[in-house]
């Protein structure tokens, strides 16, 4: 009679997870470790114990893909329902789509760039735990890119400006702002990339960028965008945790890491904040039914949650709030107005249309910005309204000067004087370079060798590298078609949307 074999002891979840992940790692035998992981030493960061990395989610590959597959099922059910029911006709107004055009041209390519570089980290970080965390985020970012493309492709069937968005991301002037940020991050070392994207972008600013905009999508009848936004936001919570774990891990490993990380926080807060200026203009001016102002979102998601909650905790490690944060706070009454005025001035060279705020929208802006809008910005929009009532439209005839770092046209004002343009200069190798703020000047002066190489659209146009010397030739090189840009009223999108609602037969153009 054979004796029954004793049952294997059931391991606790933490130990089982360790066996399935970290214990699958191995020490190299025929390749030197320095050659296997060549990029984790030159930034000056010291790591003494890679096993000190904590895994807050403790996901295995199997669990991760099951979880994501369930989310995809729910998302694509919403997309199919929206497409079959002609849901685009339920939008608050056709002008809402201009915000989505800016999103797919500016944000979706960044998701793919993040996918690529987190895959790079998944290969070159030495510890198995951070490698696996980077792998999960790489797949997350690819999923975000794909779901955004699939969601917005439905609008491409009916409206212009959604075509050639990846080509536009590489070429169009206002899209050099987000592209330059990721080019900067992807050419940094692995630890700086973690601080730039996982902490400064994902943790400090992702709620400020995603939550109000996705709520605005829902408020304006765009259920697919709301669905992919909140489907992605559950991933963003994991990304935020990765960012927080990354900075705590690096700070706890060696005291010498603290000043290096503080400098990165100072740089990347300002870089990410400057890029978010496009979102500020979109939130306040490009939603027909606005749900939350930029100022309100900034106070809630950054001032209260980050400055009031996170940074007091980081004081334990010797980390202080980002350099120039007071300048950002001083701009919260002005940022969105100044950015949208730039887009309005130059929308003849953009893949979306713009409009002067209506009386109703202007009243909302006045309510949201009682200390600045009526005095500084409403008179300008009133002038535009009078010109348009007479049959005209004001565009800026010429090319603007760009900031060498953030690449936004030099239209921001001094932190203590909203009537004076903020203008900074730096000298390097006998040349003068211009920046838009104290933050951008400080960043340039730290790494001038890097930022003198910036691909500035205005300079490239003047050098003849953008299709030709005339506006039509530049727009053709951008991939912008007739009707994508310029005046909102009477645009092909608006005319089609109105005709579909009225049921009137479409006339041949």
TrEMBL record:
Enzyme class: oxidoreductase
Pfam families in the cross-refs: Phenol_Hydrox (PF02332), YHS (PF04945)
Reactions accelerated catalytically: propane + NADH + O2 + H(+) = propan-2-ol + NAD(+) + H2O
Superkingdom to which the source organism belongs: Bacteria
YHS domain: residues covered: 413-455
Region (Disordered): 485-509
Assigned keywords, A-Z: Monooxygenase, Oxidoreductase
Documented EC number(s): 1.14.13.227
Gene3D superfamilies (alphabetical): Ribonucleotide Reductase, subunit A
Compositionally biased tracts (Basic and acidic residues): 486-498
GO function terms (MF aspect): monooxygenase activity
Protein name: propane 2-monooxygenase
Protein source organism: Pseudonocardia sulfidoxydans NBRC 16205
Name of encoding gene: mphN
């Amino acid at each position: 009679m054979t004796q029954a074999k004793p049952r294997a002891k059931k391991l606790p979840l933490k130990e089982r997870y360790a066996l399935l992940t970290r214990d699958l790692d191995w020490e190299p035998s025929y390749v030197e470790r320095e050659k296997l992981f060549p990029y984790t030493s030159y930034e000056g960061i010291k790591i003494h114990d890679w096993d000190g990395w904590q895994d807050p989610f403790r996901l295995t590959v199997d669990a991760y893909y099951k979880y994501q597959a369930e989310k995809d099922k729910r998302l694509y059910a919403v997309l199919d329902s929206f497409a079959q029911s002609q849901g685009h006709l339920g939008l608050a107004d056709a002008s809402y789509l201009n915000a989505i055009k800016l999103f797919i041209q500016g944000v979706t390519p960044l998701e793919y760039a993040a996918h690529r570089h987190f895959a790079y980290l998944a290969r070159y970080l030495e510890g198995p735990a951070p490698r696996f965390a980077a792998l999960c985020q790489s797949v997350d970012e690819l999923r975000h890119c794909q779901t955004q493309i699939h969601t917005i492709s439905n609008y491409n069937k009916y409206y212009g400006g959604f075509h050639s968005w990846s080509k536009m991301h590489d070429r169009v002037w206002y899209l050099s702002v987000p592209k330059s940020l990721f080019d900067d991050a992807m050419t940094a070392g692995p630890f700086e990339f973690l601080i730039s994207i996982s902490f400064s972008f994902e943790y400090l600013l992702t709620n400020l960028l995603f939550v109000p905009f996705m709520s605005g999508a829902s408020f304006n009848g765009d259920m697919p965008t709301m669905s992919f936004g909140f489907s992605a936001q559950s991933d963003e919570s994991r990304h935020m945790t990765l960012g927080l774990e990354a900075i705590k891990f690096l700070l706890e490993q060696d005291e010498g890491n603290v000043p290096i990380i503080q400098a990165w926080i100072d740089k990347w807060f300002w870089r990410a904040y400057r890029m978010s200026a496009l979102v500020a203009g979109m939130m306040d001016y490009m939603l027909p039914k606005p749900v939350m102002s930029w100022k309100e979102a900034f106070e809630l998601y950054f001032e209260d949650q980050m400055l009031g909650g996170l940074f007091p905790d980081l004081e334990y490690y010797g980390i202080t709030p980002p350099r120039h944060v007071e300048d950002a706070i001083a701009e919260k009454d002005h940022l969105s107005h100044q950015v949208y005025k730039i887009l309005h001035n130059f929308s003849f060279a953009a893949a979306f249309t713009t409009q002067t705020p209506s009386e109703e929208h202007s009243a909302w802006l006045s309510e949201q910005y009682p200390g600045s809008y009526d005095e500084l910005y409403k008179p300008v929009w009133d002038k535009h309204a009078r010109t348009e009532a007479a049959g005209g439209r004001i565009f800026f005839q010429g090319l603007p000067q760009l900031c060498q770092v953030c690449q936004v046209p030099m239209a921001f004002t001094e932190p203590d004087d909203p009537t004076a343009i903020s203008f900074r200069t730096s000298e390097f190798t006998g040349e003068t370079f211009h920046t838009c703020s104290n933050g951008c000047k400080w960043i340039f002066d730290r790494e001038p060798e890097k930022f003198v190489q910036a691909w500035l659209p205005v300079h490239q146009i003047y050098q003849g590298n953008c299709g030709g010397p005339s506006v039509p030739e530049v727009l053709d090189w951008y991939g912008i078609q007739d009707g994508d840009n310029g005046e909102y009223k009477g645009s092909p999108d608006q005319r089609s949307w109105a005709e579909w609602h009225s049921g009137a037969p479409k006339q041949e153009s």
